[in-house]
Amino acid sequence: MEREIEVKLLSLDVEEFKSKLIYIGAEKFLEEDQVNITINSSTHEINNGIGYLRIRESKNLITGEHKKYFTFKEQITDKNVRENIEHTTEVSEVMELRKILELMGYDLQIEGRKNRVSYKLNNIRFDVDTWDEETYPHPYVEVEANSEEELYEILDRLQVDKKHVSTLSIAELKESISK
């Protein structure tokens, strides 16, 4: 179980933002390709306000390591920051897990692919996410900190205008552009 406090930064020049991060001392520590599968049911839907199920397969592009995780992201709040508790376990057979979930009625399995480049500054994590065009066509930065105060202090230090800050999930972002 892991608690996360985060926001997304939308409509930024991500290359310029990465340069700013390096300038203030952030270090790149991870680059990975991910397949993310969100899971739901057409007959007993998991309400977005409660959280969501996800299977994630990741390939570390630096070490070549592959990992597969099954997660329920329990939503605590989406006011000012997005706060979740991640209940996660590593899995070995993604296709079998997907089949089990489907047999249990979790028939909505939406797959998206992204590249993630991650930086760390003190206890703050910055993930630059670039999804496939069908999932979400605009790269963004996800910022995760230990507290809301710490998160907004670093955004102030980086001179991020509040208009770029979002607490929407990727599903909500995807929905917002399809309207």
Overview of the molecule:
The termini are far apart. The radius of gyration is 16 Å and the shape is globular. The protein has helices at residues 14-23, 94-103, 148-157, 170-177; strands at residues 2-9, 27-40, 51-60, 66-77, 82-90, 108-121, 124-131, 140-145, 165-166. 21% of the residues lie in helices and 46% in strands. It has one domain (2-178): Hypothetical Protein Pfu-838710-001 (Beta Barrel), CATH 2.40.320.10. With 179 residues, the protein is an alpha+beta fold. The longest helix has 10 residues, at 14-23.
Attribute tags:
alpha+beta; 4 helices; 8-stranded antiparallel beta barrel; globular; 46% strand; Hypothetical Protein Pfu-838710-001; 179 residues
- What characterizes the major β-sheet? 8 strands, antiparallel, barrel
Q: Secondary-structure element sequence? A: EHEEEEHEEEHEH
> What is the helix tally?
4
Radius of gyration: 16 Å
Named CATH topology: Hypothetical Protein Pfu-838710-001
Helical residue percent?
Answer: 10-25%
Overall pLDDT confidence: 95
- Global structural class: alpha+beta
Top CATH class: Mainly Beta
For the record, the count of structural domains works out to: 1
Strand order of the largest sheet: 1-5-4-3-2-6-7-8
- The shape is globular
- Portion of residues in beta strands equals over 45%
CATH architecture: Beta Barrel
Pfam families: CYTH
InterPro entries: Adenylyl_cyclase_CyaB, CYTH-like_dom_sf, CYTH_domain
Protein name: Adenylate cyclase 2
